[in-house]
């Protein structure tokens, strides 16, 4: 079914609504600022006229992998590796439980991010920027095919060094504590993924592929969720993305031509296979398409940790040579991560940066 047109669902015309993205951006108050202004209808620039037409499959469930017995014995370890392999081949997304980060730490970072987003507007305005050289920045939205998304984001880039005092005081300690826990989880995941590919356990970790950026997302309740999106359909450009979501939900992944709800599980982390791991594995593992629905419920919070090689690495990236053979030739050309990132930001809509390097 086609999304409602402007005629069938008119957009409120008043001074509280920005007329274009530039005007919205200049306000530096984000989507939360629109809600605070008392709007009952969303601005035209948020209306997505092209929506995903896939059906939702209520009977399907994203794989859930329990890491509790990872050190118990060899049989348990092999079982977990097999589960990671199967999920990475068939789904490109899975959830992990008993990963080592206490639930109260997860709950705390969600709560502190909420406090930041609902706190002093002047603090957010000072951080508002699209300059990627800023290690810590607050921004809103991403234009895709002409439509903005219903979301505000605090970015903390840990590539190289980051002065913790740059992080807003409201969530500084929580984010730094969460970063420590996520680093340990990434080490575990890199080992499991390496072994699942038939590589040495320390393969991915030893290649310095663990540069992280933490994107803390705030999705305000939306008065017209059927017209917009929390995040458009995409695949991640990372090696892996580790996502913490609250209990509201809205994340959906594509599997076998259907949309599948990634149902929130208390204490769980969602793991997305990114395009770079699809390349590194020579398509043994596949990145998963996913999007986020807007909702009248909320606010919804999530924390996405993107893990990838350093953007300034001078080492060419491509399929692991340990996986290649005459029977399994490379499917992608080697490239520099900096060039890959530039391709991502300049690519045509509905394409991936990775597709430009396909052999």
Automatic annotation (TrEMBL):
The keyword Metal-binding applies. PROSITE patterns: FE2OG_OXY. GO terms for molecular function: dioxygenase activity; metal ion binding. Keywords: Iron, Metal-binding, Oxidoreductase. Pfam families: 2OG-FeII_Oxy, DIOX_N. Residues 210-309 form the Fe2OG dioxygenase domain. The lineage of its organism: Eukaryota, Viridiplantae, Streptophyta, Embryophyta, Tracheophyta. This is Fe2OG dioxygenase domain-containing protein. Signal peptide: none annotated. Belongs to the iron/ascorbate-dependent oxidoreductase family.
